[in-house]
Amino acid sequence: MSTIALAAPAVMPAAPARTSAYVVLAPSCLVLTMFFALPMGVMIGMSFTDGETLAPTFAHYQRFFSDGLSLAGLYRTAMMSILVALSVTVLGYPIAYFLARSRSRWRAVVFALALAPELAGVVLRTYGWLIILEDRGFINDALMNLGLVASPLPLSKNLFAVVVGLTHVVLPFGILSLTTSIQGIDPNLERAAQMLGASRLSVVRHVILPLSVPGIVSSLLISFTMAASAYATPALLGGARFKVLATMIYEQVLFYIDWRFAAVMAVALLVMMLTVSFLGIRYEARRSARRSNREGERS
Amino acid sequence: MNRVLACLFWLAVGLVLLFITLPLAVVVAASLSPSSAVTFLPWEWTLDWYGALLTDRWLQPFLLSVRIATLVAAISGVLGILAAYAIVYERIPGATAIMAGLLSPLSVPQIVKGVAIVLFLSIIGLQGILGTPALIAAHVVLALPFVTRMAATSLANFDGNLDRAAQSLGATKRQRLQHIVLPMIKPGVLSGVTFAFIISFNNIPLSVFLVRPGDTTLPIAVINYLEYSLDPVMAAVNVASMIFILAVIFLFEKIGGFSAQLHGGSK
Fold first, then answer.
1. ipTM surpasses 0.90
2. With A216 labelled, which of A52, B33, B65, B143 sits at a CA distance of 20 to 30 A?
3. Using a CB-CB distance cutoff of 8 angstroms, which residues of chain A are in contact with residue B223?
4. Which CATH superfamily is domain B56-262 in?
5. Which pLDDT belongs to residue B138?
6. What CATH class does A67-185+215-283 carry?
């Protein structure tokens, strides 16, 4: 991202037109200050101040960590995001492997099928899962018509439904990062292992999987952060029975009108996401340090 | 052994593809089903539910969403080009830090940005701009980093020799910007602008805090309705808005969007 700006030796302005450059930059900075930086600052400030006296206080945080409901919401958010991250990565892996290695004419079809849902928008897909998983929906209707179950299975308004819906929403992103990573593995390594008598299974286990760990990690991270910050899918598929931080924040603002508590929840969500992203960045840094070490030893 | 493994692999690929396409197929089927209860596969077809969309209830949110998305695409397009110009082309001091600042909204979840904006506006007594003005501003904050990044990438990738050649042939800066730089970065900027339109049009996590009764965007109208009814009108709304998005992408693509860029148009 920031490397883009650095890696731009191509263009040389004739004379430094500094003032005009700052002038054209001003509108973007103004908009982002007014509607991003200031609001974030004010919100974080509100989470640390008393509503009446504006005196600094940790009371809202104490309330958050002593209140069973909020902690349960935090736990549900983490649980849901971990499950989504795992299922996206497991389901995405075969597709990604196919996309990275196949040269058949089906490749384009699979690619389109795997990524097209992204254009459909979150509501359409979540609505699709609602129709499928509802008490009187597709699956329960079929099962009851066939006489396999007497009463509808509890498939919606719970952790299961939210994880299914979010896995569907996030899957294209997981597939993309896994595909990029598998494409980077030299196919000759697989061929060499096979020629030396390794079975397909052990090629997968001892060559492909270990070498695609960076892709697996980035798929897990992107899925976790997207799931943790999702709003519409948990709201519709989880409903009032399965609340996560995102839907609880909305309730605090619009129903309970408890702004400071909403701010605390938003900060909690933000900290959770930044922690996970930070772990990812540190992993990436360590990996490239190890690699340059190895290369240093070799030369 | 290897054959079993290959079969398992194909089975896995097939099942995942089924998982991906199933909800979309179900929604399309439901939108064409004559029965008002959304149940098993329909065997008869009707377009009645699409007819029901042509009422104020759905047209008004749709038109508002289109208006907001168009303005957001235009505003973030202009601001993004200007910012990328200052940072990459003019290379002002501190370019890296400024770029990082401009991209920083990307690392904050949308729902957190949304609640921050609504709290901020309430605290400083600007609740009056909730509704369309706040929606536009918030969506610009969301879209701007993407557009800036795409414009900056196009600017950084294009061959500076063209610019220098024009300069040595006596072209003024204005002529160079107009005839060389802008046409060269057009594909990148257009795909950024298309993306801005789509993320504004489909947005929920920011809009949900900023809509006002009577000032409701289409996705919010849809999720409000879904809270108490699943009828096939919903399916029709969703399919229609997906077709609309595809048409928008097609339109921008015709103007000279991404595929030109994918095929090296910006090089």
1. no
2. B143
3. 123, 232, 235-236
4. MetI-like (1.10.3720.10)
5. 95
6. mainly alpha
